[in-house]
Amino acid sequence: MTMTEHLELVSANKSFGGWHKRYRHRSRTLDCEMVFAIYLPPQAETERVPLLWWLSGLTCNDENFMQKAGAHRMAAELGIAIICPDTSPRGTDLPGEHDSYDFGSGAGFYVNATREPWKRHYRMYDYVTEELPSVVRQHFPVNGRESISGHSMGGHGALVMALRRPGHYRSVSAFAPVVNPTECPWGQQAFTGYLGEDRGKWTQYDACELVARGASSQPLFIDQGEADDFLEEQLKPERLEAVCAEHDHPLTLRRQPGYDHSYYFIASFIEEHLRYHAERLHKKR
């Protein structure tokens, strides 16, 4: 990255005294044009603010959370910025990229692909942990304190990034995360396609495996709807619960009766998650 990294402003909307902005830039990591969204609270006009990363789920892009979660009001009150990357590379026109909702476009699974033809572009782990943070530090008034959260596939990404990078994020939370992707259809399809048949390479992107390995002692905060259509086949929160209990890993797992997998669920509990992160983001250490 250089200090002359170019950002093109796509849109800007004032919201709760702050600004929701979308930017386009050329990603060197993904070798394509990418769009991301950032919410800057009113406090960012006069001071540097902490940052919450939000990783979205399958079929989403940078817009879903910002429009549907109702997070701006509380982020403005708490003085935290929120950044939403896209969920995959865009416009790469790879064969099979648009054949299904759960693989390819909109379904990057926050891994660094090692198989052809995906490995040139599908490097979302490095994009979210290295390239985009560098861009954000260059262009926005952030103070270096970061937390991370996400939903479904993005909840998987948030947990994995926090567990693999001990001490980097002040806190991590997730809504309905894919906690054991090596053992569910979504994860098995994605990992086979992006990483190949060697399951040993998959475990670096599996929260249950990382907890079992003792990768980090980062406390995990998760909300899971009990009426979620994907609960039994794809999400399997009881597996993370069991491995955390076995390895004495701090976990708060809240099962919410009646809630499904939608943004109605996220909007219902986002204030509690934002307060959880803000408390840790504003602490000096």
Draw up the topology in text.
Layout: E1 8-15, E2 18-27, E3 32-40, E4 49-55, H1 63-68, H2 72-78, E5 81-84, H3 124-139, E6 142-151, H4 153-164, E7 172-175, H5 185-195, H6 207-212, E8 220-225, H7 231-235, H8 237-246, E9 251-256, H9 263-281
Parallel strand pairs: 4-5, 4-6, 6-7, 7-8, 8-9
Antiparallel strand pairs: 1-2, 2-3, 3-5
Could you characterize the architecture of this molecule?
With 285 residues, the chain is of the alpha/beta class. The protein has one domain (7-282): 3-Layer(aba) Sandwich (Rossmann fold), CATH 3.40.50. The chain contains nine helices and nine strands. The protein has helices spanning 63-68, 72-78, 124-139, 153-164, 185-195, 207-212, 231-235, 237-246, 263-281, and strands at 8-15, 18-27, 32-40, 49-55, 81-84, 142-151, 172-175, 220-225, 251-256. Strands 1-2-3-5-4-6-7-8-9 form a nine-stranded mixed sheet, with helices on both faces. The longest helix is centred in the last third of the chain and has 19 residues, at 263-281. The radius of gyration is 18 Å and the shape is globular. It starts with 7 loop residues before the first strand and ends with a helix. The model has no long low-confidence stretch (mean pLDDT 96).
